[in-house]
Amino acid sequence: MSFTVAIDGPAASGKGTISRAVADHFGFAHLDTGLLYRAVGRKVLDGVDPVQAAKALQAEDLQGDDLRTSKVAQAASKVAVIPEVRQALLDFQRAFAMRSGGAVLDGRDIGTVICPGAQVKLFVTASDAVRAERRYLELSTKGQDVTRDGVLEDLRARDKRDRERDAAPLVAAEDAVVLDTSEMSIDEAVAKAVAVIEARI
Ligand code: C5P
C-alpha cells in the first residue's frame, strides 16, 4: 500500500528540511521535486530546449552543487511556467509517490496537481524576511557570493512567478494543513509535521 505525504510551499520556507526529516523519521522515500525543475533550468542555461530537456531528464542530471545556485533557481522557475515541461515530469513524480513503503514529495503543486489524493498535505510558509535570511545563510555558508538584499529579491521574483503562473501555480490545497515556520526552530517544525502525519497513519 502506498502512503503519500505532499509538502508544498514557497522557496526557503523550510519544506525541504522538514521533508527530509519526516522521511527519515517514518522510513519513507523522499523526492525533492524542485531538483527536477532545477535540472531542466540548468540544461536550458546550456542552450538546450526546455521541453526536450524535461523529456530526456536522467537520474544523473539531478546531481551537482551548481543546481543549488540562485541562477539555476531562477532558470528553474522560468521553465516551470511551461505546461509541456510540467507534463513531461508528471509520470515520474506520480510513480515515485505510489511506491510501496511510503513517500514524501516536496514542491509547489504536489498536493494540488501531482498527488491530489495524498494521505497528508502540508503547506509550509514563513515570512519573506525569515526565508531570505535562511537562504542567505545557506548560500553564503556554501561560499556563494550573495547579499541579503539580492537573495530577498530573487526569492520574491521566483515566488511571484510561481504564484501567478497559469500551470499548477503555488497555492495551498484546500485540505492542506498550513505550517508557518517563521517563529519555529527546525525541531519544532519537524515535530509538528510528524504529529500531523502520525494522526493519519
Ligand atoms: O523547490 P526549489 O526552490 O528547488 O524549486 C525551484 C523552482 O522549481 C521553483 O521556484 C518552482 O518554479 C519550480 N518548481 C515547481 N513545481 C515543483 C517544484 C519546483 O514549479 N513541484
From TrEMBL:
Residues 5-198 form the Cytidylate kinase domain. It is found in: Cytoplasm. SUPFAM superfamilies: P-loop containing nucleoside triphosphate hydrolases. Its EC number is 2.7.4.25. GO terms for cellular component: cytoplasm. GO terms for biological process: pyrimidine nucleotide metabolic process. Gene3D superfamilies: P-loop containing nucleotide triphosphate hydrolases. Its main location: cytoplasm. One of its GO terms (molecular function) is CMP kinase activity. ATP binds at residues 9-17. It catalyses: CMP + ATP = CDP + ADP; dCMP + ATP = dCDP + ADP. Keywords: ATP-binding, Cytoplasm, Kinase, Nucleotide-binding, Transferase. InterPro entries: Cytidylate_kin, Cytidylate_kinase_dom, P-loop_NTPase. Belongs to the cytidylate kinase family. Type 1 subfamily. This is Cytidylate kinase.
